[in-house]
């Protein structure tokens, strides 16, 4: 697990290799990641958008942006935690992700960025 705190928002990430399958005559490696967003600040915040940079061992880079996370824009009061699970596909058994969330402090109405720590994606069978 990797963790990071930015402006009172703690991000924790766990990953899991889910398996392989063929799509368009290419082997794909499926990964799942579980993210916990914990509000350790004194103000309520709302997650509005996400930015991901996904890179595999073949140097293929994919940028993913969008509103919220898995269709939600959670509001976190002080002490609240929002957890969600998502996933990605790579063309190689190794890779990584990094990114950030754009959040709004609901007390000050100021927007701010919360860094998601870089995390690795590794197919367990390919580690030997």
TrEMBL record:
InterPro entries in the record: ApaG_domain, ApaG_sf
Protein origin, superkingdom: Bacteria
Transmembrane segments: none
SUPFAM superfamilies: ApaG-like
Any single GO BP term: error-free translesion synthesis
Domain ApaG, residue spans: 3-128
NCBIfam families recorded: PRK05461.1 (NF003967)
PANTHER family documented for this protein: F-BOX ONLY PROTEIN 3, POLYMERASE DELTA-INTERACTING PROTEIN 2
Protein name per the record: Co2+/Mg2+ efflux protein ApaG
Species assigned in the record: Planktosalinus lacus
